Fold each of these.
Amino acid sequence: MTTSNENSKEQNSGQPPLRYIHSWHYDMLINQERSQFYRDMIKNHCQDKVVLEIGTGSGLMAALAVKHGAKKIICCEENPLLAMAAQQLFKRLGIEEKVQLIPKNSKAIRSDEIPQVDVILHELFGSDPFGEEVVPTLIDAKRFLKPGGIFLPEKIQLIYKPIEQHTLPEKIFFEDIHLLEMELLLSQVHPGLRGRDLSAEGNKYFSLPEVSMLQLTEAPYTYTENNPALEGVDAVEVSYLIIHQDKKLQAARFNETSARVHWYPLVFFKMDVPSGQLRFSTKDSVKLMVL
Ligand SMILES: C[S@@+](CC[C@H](N)C(=O)[O-])C[C@H]1O[C@@H](n2cnc3c(N)ncnc32)[C@H](O)[C@@H]1O
């Protein structure tokens, strides 16, 4: 057990304290579709290139970049526990010469600390594609890009599906208190809780136009959607595609009921849009809103 004395010694040692890691890293890393999508992109665009990876996490993408011929890969990871694991991976694979790991947030890297790069590789995406500071991080990271350099992947595309009220498998009661209001909210929020046959519904959705990461670094995201299918619906669930050239990876699936997922559809409630018009936009580029 650590004593308070030891704790204060650690705080004074100048070393960043070790942090927790989220359990979704496991679900993310066993997602073969995600790894294959990134592997194909890396294979096609990183050969002989100097690459900066933002948020290296496990180190998988950096290791793939070396495997597929990157000239050099510089990667950064703000979580010291993950940075340590990635560094150990690079050592075990014998690729330390080709990988420079900077254990800090990309915004804290000085512009003269690393060379200008051909490619910025990023996989910072949470369930909200604008969460996790993706856009502010890429805005800042542009200073590392050589003229003509690229973001990998290059685009995202929001997709959505109108949803109606559904019944939960079980009513929520304690003694004589019926939590009807929570039932109404929860009946829409998690695919596993919805009382309907999701596999029969499939993965059909509506799409907004594609938008490039570069565009997102230049202007706030806003898009007005007119769709008669939105009239009178209770909520919309939103996900997105990660796109590079002709390859697409769907983040959260609308018909996913497995427990082993790390991306979930976002649900926006109580639409009340008689006009069938919805506005998708961001708040300070760090949170998606649907109004
Ligand atoms: C979604 S995870 C992906 C991890 C990695 N690509 C993988 O496959 O294991 C994003 C990672 O980026 C890190 N991160 C987020 N923003 C960062 C930033 N601006 N600079 C450095 N690390 C960052 C997080 O700590 C997290 O480990």
Note: The CA atoms of residues 24 and 262 lie 6 Å apart.
Amino acid sequence: MTPTTSERILELREIVRNAPEATSEAARRVMVANRRRDSRPELELRRAVHRCGLRFRVDLAIHVPDRRPIRPDIVFTRRRVAVFVDGCFWHGCVAHGTQPRSNSTYWAAKIEVNQARDRDQAAALERQGWAVLRVWEHEPTPAAVSRIAEAVSQAATWSGGRASAGINAAATA
Ligand SMILES: [Zn+2]
């Protein structure tokens, strides 16, 4: 996908801002429904990650220069690994990210803005030495857990001096 330019983003934000009243109400309902749906896989993933001995922070605000704090869904502070759990709807999953048929311009803009923000936040974190991992809502939990465990153990290796650090040693991350 071509990166969204800043002019394009401004244009999209304008579309989102100028949503007509009816759209706003319909939009609100879609948002509430999808927010509820999004939270389940995230909770399940957190529990599974916790069960394999990894300790993390939830909803921690990471401060990066010149922008608002970023709040990944799962944060391994010492290892500097940030995990985002992306809902298929909000983040425009190609397989399940079906957009509402009515007000399609509004929804396309809204989701494109989200995707641009995702990329932008990841880049800002990476510049600060964070490893960023994205997990789709539809991804099977065991697969997501093993990707996370892998990223955390690799981060431990890079941080130097903790050669013995593995999954279990991450208990206080
Ligand atoms: Zn999906």
Note: Confidence is low (pLDDT under 50) at residues 160-173.
